[in-house]
């Protein structure tokens, strides 16, 4: 379920992450190392899943799972995995004991794909205890010392103890293996809770360790991302900083955790922006948790070693840099669906004649140097680089290399030199460094390199929110000008593609198409590529498999023209 390349550690490109929630994975084994415990294939490994609405699975739909081929069977019951749950606030859904793992109330929780990934790569039996309720806070509802609101911390503790006691009654040997916590947005918008978030989080971890009797528990922590929190950058940045562990609270690390996959989106029927992950986000969410855990026990998936593309020694190379947001990343284009697209089957095969390197998700996923061009995205996804590269390869002349830098969860302002108020997600420096490194590496291999162009697909979020839509052309101009200066290429070509901007009464008065046309008209080396006629799409804003293949072809046509 992972793409090729190398997983980034928690520090890699973390500055580019857009933080909307806190995610904590605390491995609750005793002070002994994790790996020896995994050699016992009979002891049940118990995981606790707790949190708010995105732990519940809000705004996801079991019926939509079939839309995502890599997860086609993820909503089916898993009889081999024990499941005990209490979900909700006023009207709680309860399993009243252990049941087979399955969706609850028609939504998709991250425990489904977590269990599927872990059981596929380990031998010991698995059990999950889940306590989750949307619209709650760490400062009040989950507060261990002064529980308020729905008093979820004592409820969670009672639930976990009851589940473990039931295993004891059944004479089932168990080990409390892990705690997975997902923090929602509510603390970030409460003036009283936000400045205390770091201390509250540290105390929360300490109380779980104390109350479950695992004082030496290792802690992994990473951030989860929403790309749809337009307008809340400063508050979220402050909450993020407050959530960093205070000195002395991070006891020992059990291994690196990817900062985020940055593919989260609300995919409610009818489209629109939202803070919830949606169906696909939840499916991927669970895989991320599983990958984090499996690396701590030495069972990470690893990455295949790939030979670089075959190019004649010292051959001149035209380098194209593909950059942008979620549709340049290709978050809803799946290799399994290529068979249904004309010419799609051939795109699944690696091209040895085109060298490819990438950094996606703002640094979450990246290649080990240059690879042959082929599907390389996380979760069996791919971007427009496949059809773009195929079209370029049909032209005679210089050899081609493609370098791709994307971040699904970004806005254009994050790419400008000035960046946004949430400075840890600013991408400009990392982007320019990536371009420079790509050129330098090819030159070290003996190739004369021409940076033939930067191909940038505009972000959809910027088209959907008035203040960003109004500034989109200005910010793009700043990005283009700065890149030319810092790369010492004053005539560097930029090809900027734009799909149909959001049509809504709130933003229709802002003619962003005219703004971008004017920007291109004033710059002989900037080309506005209007890709306004995609094939029929199932969702607003996000292109599917056929749409991504189409986009790559259209970008190549613009470049070759």
What key attributes describe this structure?
17 strands; alpha/beta; globular; nine-stranded mixed β-sheet; 2 domains; 561 residues; Rossmann fold; 14 helices; eight-stranded mixed β-sheet
Give a verbal description of the structure.
This protein is α/β, with parallel strands linked by helices and 561 residues long. Helix 10 (385-393) runs parallel beside helix 14 (545-560) and helix 12 (466-486) packs parallel to helix 13 (512-521). It folds into 2 domains: 9-296, 3-Layer(aba) Sandwich (Rossmann fold), CATH 3.40.50; 317-560, 3-Layer(aba) Sandwich (Rossmann fold). It has helices at residues 34-38, 53-56, 111-121, 152-169, 197-211, 233-243, 278-296, 326-329, 344-347, 385-393, 428-444, 466-486, 512-521, 545-560, and strands at 6-7, 19-27, 44-51, 78-87, 93-94, 99-101, 126-132, 174-183, 218-225, 317-324, 351-360, 365-366, 371-373, 399-406, 449-457, 494-498, 526-530. It starts with 5 loop residues before the first strand and ends with a helix. Strands 1, 10, 11, 12, 13, 14, 15, 16 and 17 form a 9-stranded mixed beta sheet that branches.
């Amino acid at each position: 379920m992972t793409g090729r390349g190398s997983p980034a550690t928690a520090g890699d490109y973390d500055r580019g992450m857009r933080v909307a929630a806190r995610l904590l994975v605390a491995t609750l084994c005793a002070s002994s190392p994790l790996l020896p415990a995994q050699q016992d294939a009979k002891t049940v490994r118990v995981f606790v899943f707790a949190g708010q609405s995105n732990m519940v699975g809000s705004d996801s739909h079991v019926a939509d799972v079939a839309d995502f081929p890599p997860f086609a069977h993820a909503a089916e019951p898993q009889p081999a995995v024990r499941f005990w749950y209490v979900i909700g606030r006023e009207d709680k859904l309860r399993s009243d004991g252990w049941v087979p793992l399955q969706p609850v109330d028609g939504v998709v929780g991250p425990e489904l794909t977590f269990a599927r990934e872990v059981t596929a790569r380990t031998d010991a039996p698995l059990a999950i205890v889940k306590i989750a309720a949307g619209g709650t806070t760490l400062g009040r509802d989950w507060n261990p010392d002064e529980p308020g609101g729905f008093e979820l911390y004592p409820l969670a503790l009672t639930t976990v103890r009851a589940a473990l006691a039931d295993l004891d009654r059944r004479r089932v040997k168990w080990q409390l293996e892990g705690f997975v916590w997902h923090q929602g947005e509510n603390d970030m918008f409460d003036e009283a809770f936000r400045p205390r978030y770091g201390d509250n989080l540290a105390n929360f971890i300490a109380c779980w360790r104390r109350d479950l009797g695992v004082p030496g528990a290792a802690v992994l922590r990473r951030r989860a991302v929403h790309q749809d929190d337009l307008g809340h950058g400063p508050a979220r940045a402050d909450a993020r900083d407050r959530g960093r562990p205070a000195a002395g609270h991070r006891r020992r690390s059990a291994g690196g955790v990817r900062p985020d996959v940055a593919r989260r989106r609300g995919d409610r029927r009818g489209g629109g922006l939202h803070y919830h992950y949606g169906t696909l986000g939840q499916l991927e969410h669970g895989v991320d948790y599983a990958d984090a855990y499996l690396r701590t026990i030495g069972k990470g998936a690893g990455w295949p070693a790939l030979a670089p593309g075959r190019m004649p020694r010292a051959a001149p190379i035209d380098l194209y840099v593909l950059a942008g947001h979620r549709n340049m990343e290709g978050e809803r284009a799946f290799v399994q669906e290529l068979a249904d697209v004309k010419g799609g089957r051939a795109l699944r095969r690696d091209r040895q004649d085109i060298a490819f390197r990438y950094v996606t998700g703002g640094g979450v996923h990246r290649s080990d140097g240059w690879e042959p061009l082929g599907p390389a995205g996380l979760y069996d996804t791919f971007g427009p680089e496949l059809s773009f590269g195929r079209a370029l390869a049909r032209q005679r002349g210089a050899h081609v290399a493609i370098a791709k830098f994307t971040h699904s969860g970004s806005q254009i302002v994050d790419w400008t030199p000035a960046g946004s108020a949430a400075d840890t997600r600013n991408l400009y420096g990392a982007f320019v460094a990536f371009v420079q490194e790509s050129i330098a590496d090819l030159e070290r291999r003996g190739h004369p390199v021409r940076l033939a162009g930067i191909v940038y697909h505009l972000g959809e979020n910027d088209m959907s929110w008035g203040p960003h839509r109004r500034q989109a052309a200005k910010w793009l101009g700043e990005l283009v000008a700065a890149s030319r200066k810092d790369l010492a290429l004053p005539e560097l070509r930029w090809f900027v593609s734009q799909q149909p901007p959001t049509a809504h009464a709130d933003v229709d008065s802002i003619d962003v198409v005219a703004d971008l046309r004017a920007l291109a008209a004033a710059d002989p080396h900037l080309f506005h590529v209007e890709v306004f006629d995609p094939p029929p799409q199932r969702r607003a804003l996000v292109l599917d498999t056929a749409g991504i293949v189409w986009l790559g072809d259209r970008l190549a046509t613009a470049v070759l023209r």
